[in-house]
What we know:
Layout (H helix, E strand, L loop, with lengths): L1 H14 L1 H29 L11 E10 L2 E5 L6 H8 L3 E10 L2 E5 L7 E6 L2 E4 L1 H6 L4 E3 L11 E5 H7 L5 H4 L3 E4 L3 E9 L12 E4 L2 H4 L1 H7 L11 E7 L5 H15 L9 E9 L20 H28 L1 H13 L4 H33 L16 H27 L3 H5 L14 H33 L9 E5 L7 H12 L4 E7 L10 E7 L4 E10 L4 H4 L4 E4 L10 E5 H6 L12 E4 L2 E9 L14 E4 L9 E6 L8 H16 L7 E3 H7 L2 H35 L1 H9 L4 H34 L12 H27 L3 H5 L3
Helix pairs in contact: 1-12, 2-10, 2-12, 2-13, 2-21, 10-13, 10-15, 10-21, 12-13, 15-21, 15-23, 15-24, 16-19, 21-24, 23-24
Amino acid sequence: xxxxxxxxxxxxxxxxxxxxxxxxxxxxxxxxxxxxxxxxxxxxxxxxxxxxxxxxxxxxxxxxxxxxxxxxxxxxxxxxxxxxxxxxxxxxxxxxxxxxxxxxxxxxxxxxxxxxxxxxxxxxxxxxxxxxxxxxxxxxxxxxxxxxxxxxxxxxxxxxxxxxxxxxxxxxxxxxxxxxxxxxxxxxxxxxxxxxxxxxxxxxxxxxxxxxxxxxxxxxxxxxxxxxxxxxxxxxxxxxxxxxxxxxxxxxxxxxxxxxxxxxxxxxxxxxxxxxxxxxxxxxxxxxxxxxxxxxxxxxxxxxxxxxxxxxxxxxxxxxxxxxxxxxxxxxxxxxxxxxxxxxxxxxxxxxxxxxxxxxxxxxxxxxxxxxxxxxxxxxxxxxxxxxxxxxxxxxxxxxxxxxxxxxxxxxxxxxxxxxxxxxxxxxxxxxxxxxxxxxxxxxxxxxxxxxxxxxxxxxxxxxxxxxxxxxxxxxxxxxxxxxxxxxxxxxxxxxxxxxxxxxxxxxxxxxxxxxxxxxxxxxxxxxxxxxxxxxxxxxxxxxxxxxxxxxxxxxxxxxxxxxxxxxxxxxxxxxxxxxxxxxxxxxxxxxxxxxxxxxxxxxxxxxxxxxxxxxxxxxxxxxxxxxxxxxxxxxxxxxxxxxxxxxxxxxxxxxxxxxxxxxxxxxxxxxxxxxxxxxxxxxxxxxxxxxxxxxxxxxxxxxxxxxxxxxxxxxxxxxxxxxxxxxxxxxxxxxxxxxxxxxxxxxxxxxxxxxxxxxxxxxxxxxxxxxxxxxxxxxxxxxxxxxxxxxxxxxxxxxxxxxxxxxxxxxxxxxxxxxxx
Length: 822
């Protein structure tokens, strides 16, 4: 019987090639999107799921609150881990570790030029407690012995082969690795690189006890300083069974207050410790991910799932509309089969098997398309995401489940409708009369309206996201961003002499207009802030102040507007500051001029306000403008970035390329062990909005696919409607109706459905986009009326074009053919 089902199905496909083709295309689009999005979402939700007792593992993080401002830090103070280990109950085990980034590693081989590895991003100070918390496979060495003493290092198998490609793991033991030219370590173990998805991407594990023997590491870790928190100081705990998060958090906060009692000057400032679940590390951008790991956005992932669901729904709606549109063509077949003894159940099985075959064809096409779609979005999809069904059993299960689910959803309603035809009415050509399935087919119309609601929402969302990205990239941010390059000298090799030589060589380049030395540019991802106090004799104002370090050319180079007072000069020291207008308002002054000459207490030292500049954005438009000061500071860590303004290029010229080549030549002479890295500032600003640009690209594709599927559905409904009204059209033509009148008559009802979808989607999309997208920006574009008007007009135009293919064909048909049976 099943063989007979499939034989009849293939005959039906051959007879109705166009319908079959449209059905396969509609479903394959939805299934392709679902498969690719499954790979993306499954990848991000699979991180660190393989650890034993993962539900009881937490990271201790820090929340700061000051003067209404909240800050988040993924680290803890240096002495916190040991104190928790000794004084907090409910914690069965704990693992402190300290992340080290941008390290240089060298392998001594007896030569004057040992093999060097620059910009290592995966070193960490840890001990056996880390490997007891997270299970690695030991290839040589052990967790209990390999990191007990100072200056020991354990490598992952990937890093070990990178350092010692010709040696076996056993032969690597005892080999020396020098980090940063000063930290001489000995290899004591090798663990297998984690194969599962994990944010624990560390490759070099230097023994934690090395801190006690290294002054440089002590300065970084600060193991006795309770008042200093760095995100590099990580602390993981595993709670004992039955222990509660609230109880452990309470103990840790009490422990902190015990060792670091609140001071009078800390009034209004709070420090709270919280436990962040291991499962949250990959998704929480507030605390970061070990300073280097990628953080996924759950909202984006859920949005992708909705897109996949919507495209699948559109494909299924298409199938339903097009299959029921064929009802009149298959009515006699059904009537004869029922007369010959077929039961309704057998007919339902027949139609479901046809749906299954169509879905199977669509799945095959989707499997072929999936790798190409992944390649299409490779610029913002992880390189670790690959279409590999044989190596990914969950993907095979998903595809099989999707095939069955889509077959049932798409085929159930049409099979019920078609199998319900009565043989007597069918054979009298009255299959659709008196059944309620004439012009008022509400379900089919509702499905079409749903299609266009989804399609128009995609259009509105795409326009709005593109509008916000354009707004952010073209808004006056309060500073110049074009034709500026910045280069950061290596902070470990940052001598004043070399910097002066580099500066002189840069000035000698004819393409360079102006140079400033400081730290971060006006708007960047780096934040350097401090607590300041202003006393006017009546009240005391205490606030958090962001600091930018720059010399006398900083403000001029970035064309930051000076509102009052003067700019920094070469004679100024750290005792003078130029503040922004937001800080002026925070201090309670009505005009910038009133702030000139006032003294601001910073670290118990008075700093004089010598100038006020206009506000500019310190970060992306997501963050509001905060109180800020620009300060000259001679300390090498605060003036290791060269900001270089270039002269305008001539038309078709390559002056900038020549200038950068000159910079690189000088760099290689001064810093031969460090790669020359530069950035154009406008490109750095654009990177703030990479996520939105990726979202815009994804929405553009989803919109195009949604429109395509919806138009196919509209075409199906038009075919259905014109099929029912064939004789009516013939009569109208015989009575003198023109082609235009008939096209208008046939299109009016369907155009109303498109307009109804627009009326429904407009308030819905306005609310969703305001709540879920625009609220993420402190400064945002407006949700203008033309965004909705353009969406509605565009969708209506596409619908009319789609309808015209079928309505014009029906209007110009010879009425003799349609009335022949009468």
